[in-house]
Amino acid sequence: MFVKNAWYCAGWDYSVTLARDAILARQIAGERVVLFRTPDGKVHAFEDRCPHRQAALSMGRKEGDTLRCMYHGLRFATDGRCVEVPARDRIPERARVRVFPVVERDSWIWVWMGDPEQADESLIPFAVGPGAEGWNIWTSEMSVNANYRLEIINLADLGHLTWVHENTVGGSLKYAAIEPDFELLPRGLITRYWVRSVEATGAVRHLFPAGTLFDLHFEITHTIPCTWVMHFRIFTAGAATEGDSDGTLLVDTWTSQAVTPRHADAVDYYYSWGTSKETDIPGLSDMLGQTLDIAFREDAVILEAQHERWREKPDFPMVDLPFDEGPAKMLWVLDRLLREEAGKPDR
Amino acid sequence: MFVKNAWYCAGWDYSVTLARDAILARQIAGERVVLFRTPDGKVHAFEDRCPHRQAALSMGRKEGDTLRCMYHGLRFATDGRCVEVPARDRIPERARVRVFPVVERDSWIWVWMGDPEQADESLIPFAVGPGAEGWNIWTSEMSVNANYRLEIINLADLGHLTWVHENTVGGSLKYAAIEPDFELLPRGLITRYWVRSVEATGAVRHLFPAGTLFDLHFEITHTIPCTWVMHFRIFTAGAATEGDSDGTLLVDTWTSQAVTPRHADAVDYYYSWGTSKETDIPGLSDMLGQTLDIAFREDAVILEAQHERWREKPDFPMVDLPFDEGPAKMLWVLDRLLREEAGKPDR
Amino acid sequence: MFVKNAWYCAGWDYSVTLARDAILARQIAGERVVLFRTPDGKVHAFEDRCPHRQAALSMGRKEGDTLRCMYHGLRFATDGRCVEVPARDRIPERARVRVFPVVERDSWIWVWMGDPEQADESLIPFAVGPGAEGWNIWTSEMSVNANYRLEIINLADLGHLTWVHENTVGGSLKYAAIEPDFELLPRGLITRYWVRSVEATGAVRHLFPAGTLFDLHFEITHTIPCTWVMHFRIFTAGAATEGDSDGTLLVDTWTSQAVTPRHADAVDYYYSWGTSKETDIPGLSDMLGQTLDIAFREDAVILEAQHERWREKPDFPMVDLPFDEGPAKMLWVLDRLLREEAGKPDR
């Protein structure tokens, strides 16, 4: 159901600090995870389940470098070992909580859900976080009650921009006509395309004289499971119909998006958008961000209704369309990784 | 579980127009159905599931004679064929949405949930709708979280009028004593009986001097699945103890009721009540209607608690009583139709 | 899953009278139960399920010594026999509702959920109710969404007092160090221990000068399923380190607690606490009671999170600690009783 040997985004770095008692509970790929920061600033991730009697460690208490379960007071070091059984000398060897490898990068927290021995930091996707030099990046998040496969399909598919996001980040028939360049990666897909001489998207069309046209360039790196990072640039419409636009670069943006399955029926969605400082103008990054919040609610209502229907008829015969090429490649990568892990023993 | 080759009521004709974007989503007998009207005024019913990726067509958009899925913009004609894949020439032959036969009659919309070839309009039950000449008919609807078998039993059973509807549409022990005439139909049951020299029902008893008595005549046509249409007449109490009342006709009414299962655990209930224009007096039809809304909530709380218990103990041994003769006949008809369809392949 | 041949607490005696229409609906050990009082003051318990069509008898009406089902008006005597089928002469022999033996004692209502022939009043646990002479007892109740095994473990375990109830009824590390005396009973366990020279518990520590110490004595009788009755006494700290305290008795209290499973995922919890009239001071019993309400919410949030995790991973390998000795004994008793009943036919 889920690829285990993979980095999953557990959210924005500030969420760990802002959580109640600075202890953050998540569900990731079907597992309960608790995240907390030690005084040295490092983030640690435990299974959110005390090895004694399955109490929630996320209801515990940080004490120095350790986390105390507040049911019976067992205290765990960052390597998962129990270092205190209150008022008792003997600590059973088996009193160990499962520890997940954690990396903080680009203001995101990444958790490796599989075999810690295989945790490979080079697999962490590139992203542009709010701390990136030269960029003004706005961050947000939401939850969607849908399986993550539907999110992967949605993100890999360009055809829906025309319709779902008619009034926000899409709206032109030109999106449905895109024939992108694909570059398959071991764990994902790079998708590149131009949309030329197109009107501004719905959200900002009213800001320009009628008929003002733009050249748009998209370069998207989509990885399993599930990160979607796009370099998106807006030019004045030029004359070129192939290769680079000969218009003027107006806005240079990055958006970084991570979809983390909680379990089979819901995902957490962490995302950012922002412009280069050179091309930013006051209010622009905020407006992009607010537009994205609305656009992703547009997707969410579609995906949640689709998820219900997909649960009702898992074997419904479906019809393939040209828009499904990107999604098909991504699902092929996902299913290959799932197959590779199947048969291997679980931790 | 559900008879497929049957007409199910999808609600009042005005609901299609009043729905958001004039597109109405229903669940009928376990299927998702979307209803919309084309410019010629006709109502059409599709499976509420795009053949591409199961998106909800009820979140779509009406465009002329067609319905557009607002996920990827596929557009469907009223025969279910896809007539547009945006920005693409080729339309896959298999891109067809399932179409359900629809008939509008008596202000109700009827949908045939089985094989369209077998859709037989002569099976649509007789009813008296709000447009019927000579009648003032009031309409309403509600939902009940109970299996439709419990609704069929409830409607076929006269014994509960005495107790459940003590303060609304029943209240006399005479209801529990009824020995009706039954006439079995291929898909239902006609039930006829007199209740003589009875006080007014609970809701209106206070309007008459104490001891004022009436003769009541009931003629009910109950069909599978599940319509209940009653011609109900109130006379001053006469001397006759057999055959027609020799009292004076005071009020002549029709009530038409349709119970449509959403799925195994809920129904939608559409109903009307009203008097002949000749016997109506200002406020009477409104009062009957409001009484019915209250009476059906009285049933609903009983049925929802019964449904919970029936789910907990499906094999609970039950005891039969004289009141169960009507319900037993109706369930016999239902189960015969279900058996007849079993073994036949589903569409 | 549940021991059937056992007395389950159905709540406080006053709840039957205060319920809507003085008819109380409960779920006990997976069964629906309805409780009502006849004019002679006796409480009766029926299965909350009419033998006719499973309607809820708890939606019925008390009439003298009988309970009428308000669906079709069947009326049942306290022995479960149907004594009226409205407007009909014949009463089917099988029209009998299941009757559960009931005993009122110590202001609690006890219901025997198994074979009535085996109902043995001597198995009803000792308790100190609000009517006990010489005691001022305060009563309360709550519901918890957790399996009753987790409640049994929680109540048999002394180690959690230190942490879960840090600010209410625990808080000292001395609780985690307790090595109690156990006395195994056929259906439970007596647990006795002293906690000596300990500060007042969290809730009342601020009332005493810093460093004021007490000797506490606990004697708990815990029975399956699931009653927990404690004689708890507070002395000024004395010099004795074994046997009785040589301090002065300050407060002498009893708390009686009953946990009744509704079904596999929830319990009702009825409890009381109070002091002897000799050692009571104005406001003390109220304060103890309010403290207990807060303390049991502290348990409830832990248990509900634990229950979710236990449902997710029923086979999670757990680690045993010294605190688990009491819980292990209680689960051993419970599982022995369950095994003894397994194989015997259900009623």
Give me the count of strands of chain A.
Answer: 18
Strand order of the largest sheet of chain A: 12-18-17-16-15-14-13
Share of helix among residues of chain A?
10-25%
Low-confidence stretches of chain A at least 5 residues in length (pLDDT < 50)?
A: none
Q: Rough shape of chain A?
A: elongated
| Averaged pLDDT of chain A | 95
- Please provide the ordered H/E string of secondary-structure elements of chain A: EHEEEEEEEEEEEHEEEEEEHH
Structural class of chain A: alpha+beta
Multimerization state: homotrimer
- Biggest chain pair contact, residues each? A-B, 27 and 25 residues
Strand content of chain A: 25-35%
Distance between the termini of chain A: 15 Å
The rounded Rg of chain A comes to 22 Å
Reported for the largest beta sheet of chain A, the result is:
7 strands, antiparallel
Instruction: Please work out how many helical segments of chain A DSSP would assign.
Output: 4
Provide a descriptive summary of the structure in words:
3 copies of one chain form a homotrimer. Chain A has 347 residues and is an alpha+beta fold. The first copy, chain A, is built from 4 helices and 18 strands. Chain A has helices at 13-18, 148-156, 284-312, 325-341, and strands at 7-12, 23-28, 31-37, 43-47, 61-63, 66-68, 75-76, 82-84, 99-100, 102-105, 108-112, 135-144, 181-185, 188-198, 214-223, 227-236, 249-263, 266-276. A 7-stranded antiparallel beta sheet of chain A has the order 12-18-17-16-15-14-13. A 4-stranded antiparallel beta sheet of chain A has the order 2-3-4-9. In chain A, strands 5-6-7-8 form a 4-stranded antiparallel beta sheet, with no helix packed on it. Chain A is elongated, with a radius of gyration of 22 Å. Chains in contact: A-B, A-C, B-C.
